[in-house]
C-alpha cells in the first residue's frame, strides 16, 4: 500500500488585519511535519499557494524552505505553484533543491509537457509499487490566449484549453502504465466548478472554472486554490481540496482545517483520511455586553477576537475595556453594536463587502449603461483584474515591432 500526504495553500506571509502570524505558521507547520513523521508517507504533495505574495520576504522563504526540507527528509516532496506564487522564484527554489536534496524536493514552477516535468514518477513500498503524478500548476487565462492565437479570448477557450491540457496529461500518465504496480495521481491548482468557497476568499471568476468531469481519472486528485477543505462530489474517483492550514480571515473561522492522508493500492479505491490541524490562534466572534464578555472571557483567551459590544455608546476607551477583560486576545475592529452596524468600514470581513466585479456592475447600472454593454465592460474589467495575477505581460504589437527594429536597425521596415 502506498501513502500520500496532501497539504495546500499555506499562504506564508499572510497578515491578519495588520497582525503578522509568524507564531501561528510556525506552530501549524510543525504540526504538519509531525503528522508526516508519524504517518510515513511515500510522497508528499503541496498543491499551491505556498506564499501569500509572489514576492515573499526572506523570513517567509526561510520558513518555507526549512519546513519543506524537513518534509523532504521523510518522503519525496512536490510543491505545485499556485496563483499567489512566483514561477521564477519556484524555478530558483527547484535549482537549489531538486532530486538531490533529502529524498527529493521538487518545485513545479509552470505548465510543463509530460516529458519535461509534467508527469513525475516515484518508487513506493520499497519498489513494489510506483506512483505516477501528473502536475498542473496555476495557469493564467492569458497564457492560453497567447498559446494559440486562433482560439480568441472568449471564456469558453479557457475551459477548452484546460480540458486539452488535462487530456494530454491523462495520455502521458497511461504511457507504460502497469495496472498491477502503478498508482496514478494528479495535482492541480485550479477552481473546480461547484467547489464551495469561504466567505473571505476573493471571488473566483466563474468563467475560469474547470468542470470536475474534465479532471484526469486517477486514484486521487490533490487540489489546491480553495481554502475550505472539501471533497469534490459526483466523481468515480477521489478528489479533494486540502484547504489552508490556518483560517485566513473571519469568514473561515468555523472551518476545520486539515491535511489529507491517502492510502492507495493499484486498481483499488483509495482510503482518504483528513487529519485535523489545531495549531495557531483561533479566530473568534463575540456579540454581547461587556458583562457577558466577562462571563465568557476564558473561551476567548489567546484568540484573535472580533467583538461587537451591545449596550455601549461610542467610547474611545472601549478597546481598553475589552483588553482588560481578555488580556491575551488580539482584538480586531472592536466596536459598539450601533457603530458596527452603521459603519461597514469597521467590519473587516472581506466576505461582507461587495466584490469588485459586483460593485462595478452595480455602478454601471446606476449610470444607466445598457445591460449588454455593461456586461461586456465587466468582462473586460475581469480580464484586467486577472492580469494582476500574471507575471507575464501581455504582448503589445507596437512594442514588438520596436524590439524587432532595434534588433536589426538596418532592415527596411515593411
UniProtKB/TrEMBL annotation:
* Keywords associated with the record: DNA recombination, DNA replication, Endonuclease, Exonuclease, Hydrolase, Nuclease
Q: Which GO terms describe its molecular function?
A: 3'-5' exonuclease activity; endonuclease activity
Is the keyword Nuclease in the record?
yes
GO biological process assignments: DNA recombination; DNA replication
Classification via InterPro entries? Calcineurin-like_PHP, DNA_Repair-Maintenance_Comp, Metallo-depent_PP-like, Mre11_N, SbcD
In this entry, which stretches build a coiled coil? none
Q: How does it assemble?
A: Heterodimer of SbcC and SbcD.
Its function, per the record, reads: SbcCD cleaves DNA hairpin structures. These structures can inhibit DNA replication and are intermediates in certain DNA recombination reactions. The complex acts as a 3'->5' double strand exonuclease that can open hairpins. It also has a 5' single-strand endonuclease activity.
Q: Which family does it belong to?
A: Belongs to the SbcD family.
Q: What is this protein called?
A: Nuclease SbcCD subunit D
Q: Which gene encodes it?
A: sbcD
